[in-house]
Specification:
- This protein is α+β, with helices and mostly antiparallel strands.
- It has 3 helices and 4 strands.
- β2 and β3 form a beta hairpin.
- It is globular and about 30 Å long.
């Protein structure tokens, strides 16, 4: 298992469209991916779970990946969350 703290740099944070793209990105990986924000932990591959977090630009999350492609999963998720779309 790999864990990494990531600062959200998306211009609008994780609202509807960015969440959909994020879930598509996370779903490309075989590993289980969990996003931790404040006291919540959700499956990164769940649109409803991710929408429930309401994460704004500049907020920090911890992303954990566990599985055969965990390093690639963390890198891919970080690349998206730190883009300035």
């Amino acid at each position: 298992m790999i864990k990494k703290e990531i600062t959200i740099e998306l211009a609008k944070g994780l609202e509807a469209r960015p969440v959909a793209v994020f879930v598509q990105t996370a779903s490309q990986y075989e590993s289980q991916i969990i996003v931790e924000y404040r006291e919540k932990r959700v499956n990164a591959k769940s649109i409803m779970g991710m929408m429930s977090l309401g994460i704004a630009q500049g907020e920090k999350v911890v992303v954990a990946a566990d599985g055969p492609d965990e390093a690639e999963a963390i890198a891919g998720v970080q690349k998206y969350l730190t883009s300035r779309e």
